[in-house]
Write a structure and sequence with these properties.
With 278 residues, the protein is of the alpha/beta class. It has eight helices and twelve strands.
Amino acid sequence: MSENCNHDCSNCSQNEECEQRTMTKADFLIKPNAASHIRKHIGIASGKGGVGKSMVTSLLAIQMQTKVKNCAILDADITGPSIPRIFGLQGPLQGDQNGLTPASTLTGIEVVSTNLIMDDPDQPVIWRGPVISGLVKQFYSEVNWGDIDYMFIDLPPGTGDVPLTVFQSLPMDGIIIVTTPQDLVSMVVRKAVHMAEMMDVPILGIVENMSYVICGHCGEKVELFGTQRSKDLAAELGLPLLAQLPLDPKLAAACDQGQLEEAKRPDMSAAIEAIEKA
């Protein structure tokens, strides 16, 4: 550090060498594979597990892909990967001198996930946080993603190592937070929102899953967990409620069978519009 330092690192000729320089967000960003060009990065987060975050990630990627966009999903839920099952994908992935090649879904969505690199997808991933975070970085920097318009990053629930790594290491254009209409879930959603705010990551809005079920006999909409909860939560946090998705057994079955791209899907147009504006 120079004796005449004024602590303004932005215009300092000794910026790179100075041990006392102020670290910025750009210092933590990693670059993608040299053969990859990724235009927008959208994270899908949740405060807790079991809210259908991976299904929402998949629905967003499918609908965006239908708009003649090149989409990808980086499954960052390393210990609980479900994206390959939703699309009926199997590994192991192959690679060449340009890096690991993602799997492609029926509509051309590029996917990388832990279950696509393991010999036995039923074996648990028993790794500590730093190793898991390192693999997420490798998925981004060592995979040959090619030319991607929108990369959707399926984050593990909560506010732990992987969301922190993604928020710090990737140039996030925004996140969507998935919730269900229960007070307990609302509490942990606030934690996820506050983490994103602390990390200076734009929050595009909230998607409420399992909002209601349609009676198979009379067609009536039944709100199992009550009304207005996510609307009130979104208003409290100053965020748009982008979609309210039903609890649909047919949709769940399509995910289990790896046929979500072929199933009748709920409208996600408001969420897609928010992503396009990000």
